[in-house]
């Protein structure tokens, strides 16, 4: 394997798809490239380490993340216990997290066609709690998948949380959807 820089490095998104087991028809050519390219193999190893670190941070309740459907499916294949909630804009949902749940997945339906940049704003009991700028999203998916910090949620008392998706456009900011979670702590 060569340790030299790669003349045609593999696109990060394709490396991520490969790591998630979703490279499809590109997989054979990608594996051939990785076998001979130390640079791209090292980038794939970095991605795997990052994935392990992100998983550890999720389990520790250290962060909220926007994830892809293949990532959620990978968690499911690994036997992770997921609790999922689906909301449309304007909806309020009663929700909880059980001690046995590893993650909560919030599937926020949204018309993201034409959106170039998307921010996620979260407030708890009317107070700002999180701002995520320029979150990754698939405009064709029709939803945004959010993993709130499960360990932190398990420790929180009952509360109301609002999430707002905001398109950032040349003309200004436009709310795509607002979602309300009426969280009930497990007794």
What would your notes on this structure say?
The protein has 187 residues and is of the alpha+beta class. The protein has helices at residues 12-19, 27-36, 38-59, 69-77, 150-155; strands spanning 65-67, 82-87, 92-95, 103-109, 118-124, 127-132, 143-147, 159-169, 172-183. The strands form two sheets. A five-stranded mixed sheet has the order 3-9-8-5-6, with no helix packed on it. It has a four-stranded mixed sheet with strand order 1-7-4-2, with helices on one face. Helix 2 (27-36) crosses helix 3 (38-59). The termini are far apart.
How would you sum up this structure in a few lines?
The chain is of the alpha+beta class. Helix content is 29%, strand content 33%. It has helices at 12-19, 27-36, 38-59, 69-77, 150-155, and strands at 65-67, 82-87, 92-95, 103-109, 118-124, 127-132, 143-147, 159-169, 172-183.
Task: Label this structure with key terms.
187 residues; alpha+beta; 4-stranded mixed beta sheet; 29% helix; globular
Strand line-up in the sheet with most strands: 3-9-8-5-6
Counted beta strands = 9
Overall morphology:
globular
**Fraction in helix:** 25-40%
Give the topology.
Elements: H1 12-19, H2 27-36, H3 38-59, E1 65-67, H4 69-77, E2 82-87, E3 92-95, E4 103-109, E5 118-124, E6 127-132, E7 143-147, H5 150-155, E8 159-169, E9 172-183
Parallel strand pairs: 2-4, 3-9
Antiparallel strand pairs: 1-7, 4-7, 5-6, 5-8, 8-9
Helix pairs in contact: 2-3
């Amino acid at each position: 394997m060569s340790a030299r820089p790669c003349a045609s490095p593999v696109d990060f998104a394709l490396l991520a798809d490969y790591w998630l087991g979703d490279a499809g028809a590109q997989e054979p050519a990608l594996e051939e490239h990785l076998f001979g390219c130390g640079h791209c193999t090292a980038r794939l190893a970095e991605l795997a380490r990052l994935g392990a670190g992100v998983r550890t941070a999720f389990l520790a309740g250290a962060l909220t993340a926007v994830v892809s459907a293949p990532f959620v499916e990978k968690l499911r294949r690994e036997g992770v216990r997921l609790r999922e909630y689906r909301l449309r804009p304007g909806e309020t949902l009663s929700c909880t997290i059980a001690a046995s749940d590893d993650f909560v997945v919030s599937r926020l339906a949204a018309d993201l066609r034409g959106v170039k940049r998307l921010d996620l704003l979260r407030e708890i009991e009317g107070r700002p709690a999180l701002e995520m700028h320029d979150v990754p999203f698939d405009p064709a998916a029709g939803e945004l998948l959010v993993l709130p910090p499960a360990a932190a949620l398990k420790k929180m008392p009952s509360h109301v949380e609002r999430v707002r998706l905001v398109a950032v456009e040349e003309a200004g900011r436009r709310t795509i959807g607002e979602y309300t979670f009426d969280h009930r702590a497990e007794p």
